[in-house]
Write a structure and sequence with these properties.
four-stranded antiparallel sheet; globular; binds ligand 2P0; 2 domains
Amino acid sequence: MSPRSATAVAHPNVALVKYWGKRDAARNLPAVGSISVTLARLSTVTSVRFDPALRGDELSIGGLPDAQALERVSKVLDRVRASAGFELRASVESRSDFPIGAGLASSASAFAALALAATKAAGLERSRRDLSVLARQGSGSAARSLFGGFVEWHRGERADGIDSFAEQLLPEEAWPLAVLVAVTSGAPKSVGSSDGMEHTRLTSPYWPAWVEGAPAALTAMRDAIGARDLVRVGELAEHSCLAMHAVAMAARPGLVYWNAATVAVMHAVRELRQKGVPAYFSIDAGPQVKVLAAPSDAGRVRDVLRAVPGVERVIDSRPGPGAQLVDGEMESGS
Ligand code: 2P0
């Protein structure tokens, strides 16, 4: 059998209603549903080559071998091999054009691209929904990056997790929005998301309140996105972000993903709001701040973010497409 390969590109996403915590760590099933927007411009390109000459799976990230991430990658590849009915090992090469492991959802784009490329290389045809279930097993937030625009990933109720899939709420072109990413540090985070979530579930006294609040937060966000209501989406997104960080900060010991510049950006965004510019922040498991604004205000918001001490650079983004194959057939982003 000759080698079979495919390459896919995917983009990170920022959660507007956050995923934080698992109901089943082995199957990577979330304790809460989440809603995100997929980001244009930031990209991860992942190539998969199933090759009879290989004795084990191989992974390189940004050109360097990565034994730590290989375990998760092999888990996804094992599912693909089982479906395809072969045992071929794979070589996986992944490259991102933004800082990885620093709270910019590089695992989301990487595993979304992996799920699509591996499936294609194995000669399988899968729906986006099935691909989201596959990608989820590598990294939860990756389920959402299969789709473009505004996306919901369902918690699901089933023990086998097949009802924990992502689906699109609104395509990327349906609502122009500016998403500015204030990068305050390119350093990898000290506590990874998976460990941080589990630590929070096990030790934070606010955990039950976090889980109980999720259904109402999701319903409100779905409605606000449907209405393309920036003020409502922004208020709900800020609340979900602060609630996620509050439950994590209340763990023992508490998790603090922010640095001084992160906090300074939060205040700068709120000051802008007081001056009449609707801008809202969101922060994931890292020190970067994503700011939602109307496209017509993007220039002003960018200038304010750039002027905050500690902000290294500001990346302009907007709602972007879902994962795509880059070698030959292109698939629709939704
Ligand atoms: C999110 N985060 O909804 C939340 C908010 C970070 C903060 O999803 O353990 O890398 O691989 O399923 O997807 C980052 O966590 O975690 C994340 P795993 P993942 O975007």
